[in-house]
Amino acid sequence: MKPVLRGLAVAGLAAVAAFGASAPAVAAPYPNHPVTIIVPFGAGGSADVYARVLAQHLGQETGQSFVVENRPGAGAVIGTQYVAKSAPDGYTLLMMSNTQTVNESLLHNKPYALMRDFVAVAPVNEAPLVLVVRDNLPIQSVQELIKRAKEKPGQLNYASSGTGTPYHMAGELFKSMAGVDIVHIPYKSSGGARTDVLGGQVDMMFDAVSTMADLIQSKKVRALATTGTTRSNVLPGVPTMAEAGVPGYTATIWLGILAPKGTPKEVVDFLNEKITKIASQPDVASVWAKSGVTPMKMTPAQFTDYLNGDIDKWGKIVKSANIKVD
């Protein structure tokens, strides 16, 4: 090669190399490596179960692994904080419940704030609770319960799985809306609370429909009302709380997915689309329905509004009932 041509060739290669060094890298399509869904609750609970269902279907939808990791403790604070401090790239997600929205007003020294440190991705599903009383309590309806509670304030009691849990907050919401004084007895687990209602040591509790259905049908406890906006398909003969005499009452257990604040909008929208698609699948919805669970479908913006509304709703109850964590 002649010296002039050789010089031009070298210059051309240098120019290409320089352009390649300065050109922006093209981002690989999301997701291009495994995604972790953090569940801030123990294994075997509803959040864990549905996170694993979601992970399986997201893996099928995307061709990438979605892995569930349990990080329980401190009322869901440990796992939630872990995600809050994770990189906002869509590879670490949080499976949350209304425990987190209650915690916003219940726990004042959390190392994060839900709406400051997270972005709403998508809701997953919700399930109503059922109010049951011990079988030897001579109360047949919500109206009879309210009447007796007003006649004898502070004499009736209800169990829950702990302060600030959905079971507890459902009871406090009932007390507030019905204008009654019923004593709260917190337990360390829903199992302990349930055992003492069945044994007659405690008068009543709000519990998961799927857990209580068989006990209700075998008449070991008496169901007074469910807590959704419509009747549960698992307990169609049991009225909603609104039908039973407390208009406007709703208190469901719901689940959703959050991501660290700063996660790219295109990733959030992608996940929202996939999660909504999964929840809309007939085979998924039919399996969930057998447990009284209903899919929830919202855009990220709608879910953001829903979260803000839930924080406000339970914040008022925490304040009015002066609920504090021991």
Automatic annotation (TrEMBL):
Q: Give the family from UniProt.
A: Belongs to the UPF0065 (bug) family.
Q: Would I find Iron-sulfur among this entry's keywords?
A: no
Keyword terms, alphabetized: Signal
Signal peptide interval: 1-27
Quote any Pfam family the record assigns. Answer: TctC
Q: Entry's PANTHER family? A: BLR1237 PROTEIN, TRICARBOXYLATE-BINDING PROTEIN
Q: Does the keyword Signal apply?
A: yes
Q: Could you name the domain of life of the organism this protein comes from?
A: Bacteria
Instruction: Please give the name of this protein.
Output: MFS transporter
